[in-house]
Amino acid sequence: MSLYKVTIDTIEIEVEPGTTILNAARRIGGKVVPPTMCFYSKLKGSGGKCRSCLVKVAQSSEKDPRPMPKLVASCSTPVQDGMVVENITSPEVVEARKAIVEFLLINHPLDCPVCDQAGECDLQNLTYEHGLSSQRYEEERITFERIDIGEKIQLHMNRCILCYRCVYVADQITGKRVHGVLYRGDHAEISTYVSNVIENDFSGNIIDVCPVGALTDKTFRFKSRVWFTKPMNAHRNCSKCAGEVVLWESGEDILRVTGRKDQYGELEHFICNECRFEKKKTSDWIIEGPRKIKHSSVISQNNYEYINPAENNDGNLGIT
Amino acid sequence: MGIKILTEFIDLPDLNRFEVYRKHGGYEAVEKVLKNDTPDHVLAEVKISNLRGRGGAGFPTGLKWSFIDKSTDKARYLICNADESEPGTFKDRYLMERNPHLLIEGMILASFALGVQQSFIYIRGELFYVLNILEKAISEAYAKGFLGKNILGSGFNLDLYCHPGAGAYICGEETALIESLEGKRGNPRMKPPFPAVSGLYGCPTVVNNVETLASVPWIVKNGGEAYSKIGIGRSTGTKLISACGHLKRPGVYEIELGLPVEEFIYGEEYCQGIRNGNKLKAVVAGGSSVPILPANLILKTAKGEPRLMSYESLQEGGFETGTMLGSGGFIVMDETTCIVKNLWNFTRFYHHESCGQCSPCREGTGWMEKILHRIESGQGKMSDIDLLADVAKNIEGNTICPLGDASAWPVRSTVRHFRTEFEKHLIEKRCPYIK
Lengths: 320, 435
Description:
The structure holds 2 protein chains of 2 kinds.
Chain A: E1 4-8, E2 11-15, H1 21-28, E3 54-59, E4 70-73, E5 83-86, H2 91-106, H3 122-130, E6 147-149, E7 153-155, H4 165-172, E8 179-182, E9 189-192, H5 205-209, E10 215-217, E11 230-235, E12 244-250, E13 253-259, H6 273-278, E14 286-290
Parallel strand pairs in A: 1-5
Antiparallel strand pairs in A: 1-2, 3-4, 3-5, 6-7, 7-10, 8-9, 11-12, 11-14, 12-13
Helix pairs in contact in A: 2-3
Chain B: H1 18-23, H2 28-36, H3 39-49, H4 61-66, E1 77-82, H5 91-98, H6 100-114, E2 118-123, H7 128-143, E3 159-164, H8 174-181, E4 205-209, H9 210-222, H10 224-229, E5 231-232, E6 235-236, E7 238-245, E8 251-256, E9 259-260, H11 261-266, E10 280-284, E11 292-294, H12 295-299, E12 308-309, H13 311-315, H14 318-321, E13 329-334, H15 339-353, H16 359-376, H17 383-395, H18 403-417, H19 419-428
Parallel strand pairs in B: 1-2, 1-4, 2-3, 7-13
Antiparallel strand pairs in B: 5-6, 7-8, 9-12, 10-11, 10-13
Helix pairs in contact in B: 2-6, 2-9, 3-6, 5-6, 6-9, 15-16, 15-18, 16-17, 16-18, 17-18
């Protein structure tokens, strides 16, 4: 099959038909990659919801009848041959992204100082890179009660940006469809069916896919700020999952266990609940060494990997 | 009165009964087509007629039909969008309630043209009594051999089902409707793929409005050519207008496209002017989501030409000084109306009906409603007007489905045309229309 030629921010690349604009941009890498809050390459059907990956299609192919230029969600729009896409080179996109950040924040509690996710929060990073420094919203925020999803996970709906990632995890990884969205509009909430428990070996992954602090690990809650912990790559022989994890240590203690995230904040492997919640002793694991952290991340304190300032601020989560 | 295509016999008692409908030329088009016509010929007639989608967007129906993917051996589906819930629009309900067989006949013809063997009417959940009327009519049509296997001995099979929604405005958006029909949460899908390629159960699907499908029997019977001669320019045929608000005679009218707006509002045959001899203040011409226009701009375009009831004329001037024909929900407001309160009411609706899937609409509609509530109740400040317009601008065009645009257009147009009303609220710190 012949390849499609696409131009993103003046950089040309050839990709297979059916590739989304986002994936084409990720192929190029660096600053032309749009940020994502809801898209997750390992979850089928995800994306299109947060609108933070909006890009401008300045010109589509001759075959495409849709009127251009237009802003589209790059994560769910396939490329056309000869498509010209503008991301950070388009003032319109920069403006729209600012607006999206503002929308995502108006009902977000901004309780970062007491939120476990702070330091590794996609929304924090997005706001820092694209957002405004002040806010115009002065109305009362919508609030929800905190809900325990089983013994190990807490849902703090106030912080949720309804990215639906956890819904797709529950749907696609855990097999039983017991987790979904109730209600509509800004009152929509993540919920679990009948009992509040997801009894499944892989349910803990909803914590890792959550871009904000809505789903947190109760075994780690309020124990430490993430930037005070040391991330270490480790693995064990697990019968249920790949067993490749990151241990977040403080001194000799393992405070929490998470999956390994790639440069776009997506898990390399989904891990099982046993690895995540039960194995909190160093003797459970074969330690590989420190996890490399990028300079731009707050987690990199005392652990600088790159000194080159040009590496900064490249729109990635900061964990490699 | 002009020509009547949809409502000629609508006032007959018992028109919803098969025999009465049949006596007045009902199902003749089906007979004619199934005996000696090909599907392509029906499609060609609809194309020639220039019939445009009556649900709001005005997309040419023949073109929509021709997009359907015929290369696969998957089943094809036709869905009638009867989820009419736009504030100010009540034409489809009227048509289905009075003349259900017309819709059924239109669906048989459309299904034949598209090679569809299973069709659905997705009806708004609140219209439960209309569902009963439709189901009764469908069972009559089955009994008389116009639905089911081997219709009129032609070898063409069609099953028609009614499915009531659960009362969500968003399910009137075609992909949300399809999701809902599949039994899922009514969230709009990402496009592409469009329903013509991958719609209901992943199969090629056409979604048409009730009025669009109800126009098909006439086109088949009288020819697309004849239909294209009715109306004006590219706005062919007739349109049902549901007129409401401060009119002497509100109601559903079938008009020939191209009728001057002034005649529609003041004409003896139509709405007969404004109640109590009041002055016209503003009109929302096509259901709550289209831009509102003040009296001077609805009667005449910015160029000073008389404004006509047609797709093109109402759009004249773009969104700066024009509006849209939309779904035909014609909401008229006289001088006693508080435009800010009206806008608050509209925005409250969109806030309530936003599905919450994408962030600009989910958060933005609620934000706009809260700002408007504040202004209306005298708590606002001057900067709120620009903030409101800015929030609307940030929603527009950035959402998955058109509900975001639909919530933004009324806000932006009201701020554009009625800024002084907002200012009055803010200066007086109260609504000047509350005595």
